[in-house]
Amino acid sequence: MLTKKSVLKNREVSYVSAYKLYQQTIQRPQIIPTGVKRIDELLDGGLQIGRIVEICGQPTSAKSQLSLSIAVNVASRKNIETIYVDTKHDLSGVVIRNMLRSRRYTENVIAETLQKIRVARIYSVEKLIELFENLDKRMTDKDNSLVIIIDSLPSLMYLHHGEAKFEGLNLLAESVLRMRKLVSRHQVAILVVNIITCGRKWTPVEKKKPEEMRLQKPSLGKHWQTVPCVRLLSKWIIDSHAVSFYNFANQMITGFEERKKLSYTSSLRMADKSK
Amino acid sequence: MADIVGTTALDILIEETKQRPIITLCRKLDTALGGGIAPGIITEFCGPPGSGKTQFCFQLCVNVQIPRSIGGVGGKAIFIDTNQDFTPYRVKEIAEICSKRYEDVFKNSPQTSSAEPEFSVEKILDGIRYYYCNDRYELWAAIQLVKARLKEEKDIKLIVIDSICSPIRVMDDYSERIRVLYRILTDLQIMADEYNLAVVLTNNLTSKPGENNQWYLCPALGDTHTHKIGQRILLGRNPKEKDHYVAYLEKVKLSPPVYIGFKITDGGIRGAD
Fold this sequence. Notes:
The structure holds 2 protein chains of 2 kinds. Chain A is of the alpha/beta class. Chain A has a single domain (28-262), classed as 3-Layer(aba) Sandwich (Rossmann fold), CATH 3.40.50. Helix content of chain A is 48%, strand content 17%. Chain A has helices spanning 4-10, 18-27, 37-42, 63-75, 93-102, 107-116, 125-138, 154-157, 169-185, 210-214, 221-225, 240-259, 264-274; strands at residues 31-32, 47-48, 52-57, 80-86, 117-121, 145-151, 188-198, 216-218, 230-234. In chain A, strands 3, 4, 5, 6, 7, 8 and 9 form a 7-stranded mixed β-sheet that branches. Chain A has a two-stranded antiparallel ribbon with strand order 1-2. In chain A, helix 7 packs parallel to helix 9. Chain B has a single domain, classed as 3-Layer(aba) Sandwich (Rossmann fold), CATH 3.40.50.300.
């Protein structure tokens, strides 16, 4: 049972003077450059130890590609270890090898770099929490700095979306606590990949203005928004990707009109009239 | 201390180089995909009706059974049907031509071994296991059933769900829809990971509001679904040429987004050139 005495006995809560903290930050290298020049500029030098950084963006906006290159760049530095938490089988060894080959590295260096990236394939939040717990137990002060890249967190959280009671928000809150604990106690920096979605409440399309539906925000809810210290938005500058896709799709529509089969445009015209 | 996590990216690379992808018989598509539909990844075919999604599924169900001796996978396929699109007659047609081609190859090859594995039409059709699922509960049950069976039958190398969107779209609660979808996809991903099999889904198109109050076509089930699947290929007719189709590699690991032409012949999917 938790009593006042047992709590005071078992938990060490002590203060540190701000001056000591300041000295610690000077002594240790606190910033790990990501190796991507523009991102380093945005982040004031790179990933900071003790902080959580988020990358968010729509699907196919190269979030995974960015986090992979950061993992590769960090792994090719000395005295830093990398853990890549892969929640949707996104990490491909061939892709990393091609990335390194394009930089004209020798095969030996490629193999060494690949060996330095640890990959954890995790398919539930509970397992993620377990990983954080194990890391917290095993890490000591003498260890190298560690960068943890989580690609992606919403992919685990959506398994509990809309559930009765807490919708898995308690699990999210717990993993946040573990992350913060890990980051504050040890030499750890965390990078989390998040996605951007339309608002969650779905109403019939007729009642909704297009602008309203396009209102997009990072997923994982309000609580998560307070967690990362920096949020990077990954986006196509020229929307050529989407444009080409829509052109392609529209071509398909015209193809259908010619054949006088089920036509998308006619149903869309009907929708226009109802306005 | 990072060795709490046992696997390294090198282990994954070695594993990937050992794997045999399932060829699509469309050469350009195969090269772009790195040899074919890769095992361990969820691949989605997406397009309007009549764009060749189901044809691709039939072709892959046959191709997965090409014997290992000539560089195939030599596995079996599971076909989970949710909108009654499975036509055994058409599968037989594709299988007949594939089997004939295989026999021709063996006749012409100089070192014909006596232990030539059989690749007859009956055997191909026998190697496709068909499940019909009417709603999401049946789909869930079928996936669980397959999952339990995989421990014994390790020669299953392909799971096809045609289509994933029809049982999911009936749900009116948006959050429930995402939850059910993610649970199904996670289960499929775990199976693909553990037993090294390819998962192929098909999906329909829907319209979505975009710039200037216009409506655009986009794959159904939303951005959250796009996030979870590994690869997506959009299919459509080529409006300029008759009986020509186009595949657009929207989200593929080893290739930038490109267009690739293909044809649907009596023998199934072939390259357009």
